[in-house]
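MODEL INPUT / OUTPUT PAIR
PAIR INDEX: 1
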Amino acid sequence: MVTKRRVRAAQRIGVLVVLSLAACGSGGPDVASKACTSMGLDPSGVSVNISGLSTGSGVAIVVCTPLKCTTANQKYTDAYRSPVPNAGIKSVDPVKITVTVRDAAGQVLVPKKTLTVTPMRNQPNGAGCNPIGYFATVDVAASSAAANS
């Protein structure tokens, strides 16, 4: 025999099921109501700090990963931090890179240096929002011959 008590219990269960299904379909309250900002982000890559060079001339900084080599042509200053975009930096996993720096005439200022870096993740618009970038920083020094030229 169906009592009023059982009917009310069934109605409560039905309401809970409907609410649960509605939450599942929306991705939950955090995802459904998440508002992302629209801040941009430089491409993933490596910032290269160069020490031991005088200011003024342009340099070509080459950064290679196992997947890709990229070159950034920059002006340098003492202890210059130069961003070099590189699509081979794809995660926070350690990656082996090589860095070489040449002047505009092609003279090697920083001989090829091999390093293992651990990039940091950057998500300027917050968790769950794009863009996502991965960045590492390395310090290199000009060879004594280049610094004295």
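PAIR INDEX: 2
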Amino acid sequence: MGKKLLILAAAMTFTFTVYSQTGTDPGPGEDTTAGMMSNPEMGPQAGPLLDSRQLQRQKWYYSIDEAMREPEKVYKLSLSGKKLTEVPREISRMPNIQVLNLSQNRLKTLPPELADLTNLQVLNLASNKIKVLPDNFKSFEHLTSLYLARNRLIEMPAWVGGFSKLRILDLALNNLTGYEIELVRNRLPRCNVTH
């Protein structure tokens, strides 16, 4: 019962975080899908960055098969609890993903293709087996929430301080020292860092 409540609380926190970001609705008649079509010669191109209200209206996708039927319409993808040992490569063909939940899997490493998700705003990697963050994560300039709790992190790279939009960073239950957590807090003064 306690584990179910913890999972429910984490899911509610994750959902609240996604939708509590401030933003504005598009004006009447404003096209929010401009730029979403891909150029077959160049591959899929990322569409517009959505605000929290626009994201809230987007459909959640819960499997790669479902998402690959319409990859350019995927803004929110949850593959939580699928026992994944690696991130599916198909994710890089979904250029508009802005909320990605890969929590409660068996991931040890993260592929370079994840960096192709340039509009990513929320990334949940909690409850995996990740030890280090790859350098290509620096490209997540729109990231507002990063959940890394219950992994095996042994360090946080200095470049994490470049995440100027990051407001939530969950580092609970990792192998990080108190000193390392303080360094992260100093690098991200506007971010709520939990440990």
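PAIR 2 NOTE: Residues 40 and 164 are 33 Å apart (CA to CA).
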